[in-house]
Amino acid sequence: MARITLSNLAHSYLAKPATDADFALKQMDHVWQDGGAYALLGASGCGKTTLLNIISGLVRPSQGRVLFGNQDMTDAETAARNIAQVFQFPVVYDTMTVRQNLAFPLRNRGKDAAYIKARVDQIAAMIGMETILDRRAQGLTADAKQKISLGRGMVREDVNAILFDEPLTVIDPHMKWELRTQLKSLHREFGHTMIYVTHDQTEALTFADKVVVMYDGHVVQLGTPEELFEAPAHTFVGYFIGSPGMNILDAQVSGTRAQLTGGVEVALGHGYGTPKGRVQIGIRPEYVTLTQGDGLPFALTRIEDVGRHRIVRGTVGGQLVNVVVPEGQPLGADLTHVRFAPERINVYADDWRIAGGAV
Amino acid sequence: MDKTQNNKAWFLVLPVLLVVAFSAVIPLMTVVNYAINDTFGNNQFFWAGLEWFEEMVASSRLHDALGRQILFSAIILAIEVPLGIYIALNMPKKGAWASVCLVLMALPLLIPFNVVGTIWQIFGRVDIGLLGHTLAAIGIDYNYTNDPIDAWATVIVMDVWHWTSLVALLSYAGLQSIPQAYYQAARIDQASRWAVFRYIELPKMQGVLLIAVLLRFMDSFMIYTEPFVLTGGGPGNSTTFLSIDLVKMAIGQFDLGPAAAFSLMYFLVILLVSWVFYTVMTSLDRQESR
Asked: Cβ of A8 under 8 Å from any chain B Cβ?
């Protein structure tokens, strides 16, 4: 086991990348601490899978280095890296039984038979397949096959890291929950570094201690779920995490005041000077409250009841604003204004968050 | 709910019935007619029952031809299937060279059968043929018109040259359909090259390989044109396969009765083997989707 460092890394699938847009992964420096449980979150096509394949050695990066501990592994074969990886779609060896499938990575590494048997039985219990160990893998359902793939990923004890590439896509929701819980307890027990790629924020937030959000080939933020919620470093994080995502409004900021379109003005929790570029303010729908006249004029468009709360959608000065209203709080026609909690407002210049100074 | 019964729709089937009757059923029944009758021309037939069949089943000439036929099919399957797989495994998977290889592989399949026979007929001649002359020049005693072994070797090499591409192209298509994730998983699992072939590629190619074997078996079992042009069935009877023998019997000697009985049995053998293949294939499919 080792810390995994990506140094100066970038990757393009083209032979001669010319512009920034040719890169699937933009230049990055990133450290995965030994024993961490990470979720790698981002929209489809943002480079998550490429990043995983670079770590496991299936893809050689066009530039930069991959270090395990202090050892340069950039050119090392997959086998030499000792990494387990589980793919999005089930990969099983059709002609083998479930037992042979689970034992395959161990057999290829020349472990002795008694150890293999003990280990396979242990993994089979974990994925709930003890009873069908001697069946051929070919005829099984997709989620059973994916459980075998997961089992094959976890069967080796001495791996440097286990990488999961959206492994639960094909598994039904109930089983998903259970397997994720098992992965989590596995992590607590053995302390493997785990990197879990997903585009499902619930999955990411329940699995990981640290969430890495990627956008358009960049790592835009690394943080705890709470940090991602309270202080998204990039407007994409604000929009991607949370349901609904953060309200983001164009504004002109000077000092502690933000001027929105339509001539409305908002107080900010901190001083920001006069930021350059495209300036926006962001506020979570949870921190917007409906009022009877205090705050900014709000034009309501519709109300959605999602069960545990209601989402009120409308506009402020022509820009979309969502408000989360807890269940049970009455919604009257007299609620014509909204108030933004000044402490909860983040300010962005060209999509990146800027830190506020003293008031 | 009551359904209206209207049997007029059956008339719509009539054109296809006519076409099938004229192109398949009636010609086949004519053969059946010849097989169970004796005739001296003038459309006069005398009932012969199963006599022709009995004669053919007991005929050592047919036994010999059948033996040669089975040996031939077995040899070319044993060469073409592994060779085709080997070629497919080594063909480039993408890029310009993949297209070039595909075109090169497809070329032999596009050459008419009798042209293939002629090419090899000339190629193998000792006096003017490139192959025959070269072999003679380096001191190998080769002459496919005199020596049965040489004739067999030439016919087999010709068939391999003509048809291995088919197996290779089918295998290639099977290989191309294997998702990249399987190879990646194998690398993660540290599988050897042989294990990748044995546990990933071969099982995934199983379906197309069965089709390839079926096609090559049927074609080789019915082979006529190429050996006929190359050796004419000789020297002696050494390369006289079933269909060559059949043509000799039916057109050369005008023994229509035995030839007709022979054709029917020939047809039934191929039908039987194809049915076995079909059954195996569908049962494999069922296993997969279970």
From this structure: no
Yes or no, beta carbons of B184 and A87 under 8 Å apart: yes
CA–CA gap between residue A239 and residue A245 (Å, rounded): 4
Chain-chain contact of B287 with A84 (C-beta, under 8 angstroms): no
For A88, counting Cβ atoms within 10 Å of its Cβ (0-12 exposed, 13-18 middle, 19+ buried), the class is: middle
Mean pLDDT of the region A335-351: 87
pLDDT above 70 as % of chain B: 97
pLDDT given at position B22: 93
B180 → chain A, closest CA residue: A91
Angle at A255 between CA A252 and CA A258, to 5 degrees: 35
DSSP H helices in chain A:
48-56, 78-81, 98-108, 113-127, 142-154, 173-190, 201-207, 225-230, 235-240
Question: Which CATH architecture group holds A246-354?
Answer: Beta Barrel (2.40)
Place of tokens 């090899």: B120
A138–B288: do the CB atoms touch at under 8 Å? yes
Q: Which fold has domain B60-289?
A: MetI-like fold (1.10.3720)
Tell me the nearest-neighbour CA distance from B202 into chain A, angstroms: 10
Contacts of B204 in chain A (CB under 8 A): 94
CB contact under 8 A, B191 and A149: no
DSSP-derived 3-state class of residue A114: helix
Quote the minimal CA–CA distance from B177 to chain A in Å. Answer: 14
> How close A94 gets to chain B, by Cα (Å)?
7
Q: How far is CA A256 from CA A47, A359, B110, in A?
A: 37, 7, 80
Q: Could you tell me where in chain B the CATH 1.10.3720.10 domains are found? A: 60-289
User: What integer pLDDT is reported at residue A357 of this predicted model?
Assistant: 73
Is B185 in contact with A87 (Cβ distance < 8 A)? yes
Residues whose CB falls within 8 Å of the CB of residue A245, separated by 6 or more in sequence, listed in order: A238, A239
User: Can you state the angle between helices B96-110 and B148-176, rounded to 10 degrees?
Assistant: 140
A149, B185: Cβ pair inside 8 Å?
Answer: yes
Q: What is the largest CA-CA distance in chain A?
A: 76
Q: What is the pLDDT of residues B81-115, one digit of tens each?
A: 999 999 999 988 888 898 999 999 999 999 998 89
Residue of A85, A89, A93 with shortest CB distance to B199: A93
CB pair distance less than 8 Å for A88 and B199: no
Query: What number does CATH give the domain A4-15+23-230?
Result: 3.40.50.300
pLDDT at A189: 79
Distance CA A43, CA B224 (A): 61
- List residues of B whose CB lies inside 8 A of any A CB: 179, 181-182, 184-185, 187-192, 195, 199-200, 203-204, 287-288, 290
The domain limits of chain A are 4-15+23-230, 246-354
Is the model's pLDDT at B171 over the cut of 90? yes
Q: Which of A75-79, A200-204, B216-220 has maximum average pLDDT?
A: B216-220
